Amino acid sequence: MKVRVTEETCPYRLVLEHVTSRWGVLILLALEKRTHRFSELRREIGRVSEKMLAQTLQTLERDGFVRRDARPVIPPHVDYSLTPLGREAATQVRSLAEWTERRLPAVQTAREEYDSAKG
């Protein structure tokens, strides 16, 4: 019998998936710099659909990492920023991103060696 992993059976795993997802990482890093409106955030991140950005923001908001501040004006003005918990997560994600950037040459070398051995 296969056990389905759910929020109830493994809550930390889902939070980890949200924070370390492709768009989750990029959102946290962008919002660590400053507050953004939706369209600014989309431009900053690049190559993310409106739907995926909205879903990821909503997930990060639900998890307590992102604050959504909607002002009742016309047209609507919505700002996204990090909560204290989100700022803490962004610091951790930034460390991983910086390590990845520093170690990219080693990763590229390993890929080339792997491809040569397999090719």
UniProtKB/TrEMBL annotation:
<keyword id="KW-0238">DNA-binding</keyword>
<protein>
    <submittedName>
        <fullName>Helix-turn-helix domain-containing protein</fullName>
    </submittedName>
</protein>
<feature type="domain" description="HTH hxlR-type">
    <location>
        <begin position="10"/>
        <end position="108"/>
    </location>
</feature>
<dbReference type="Pfam" id="PF01638">
    <property type="entry name" value="HxlR"/>
</dbReference>
<dbReference type="InterPro" id="IPR002577">
    <property type="entry name" value="HTH_HxlR"/>
</dbReference>
<keyword id="KW-0805">Transcription regulation</keyword>
<keyword id="KW-0804">Transcription</keyword>
<dbReference type="InterPro" id="IPR036388">
    <property type="entry name" value="WH-like_DNA-bd_sf"/>
</dbReference>
<dbReference type="InterPro" id="IPR036390">
    <property type="entry name" value="WH_DNA-bd_sf"/>
</dbReference>
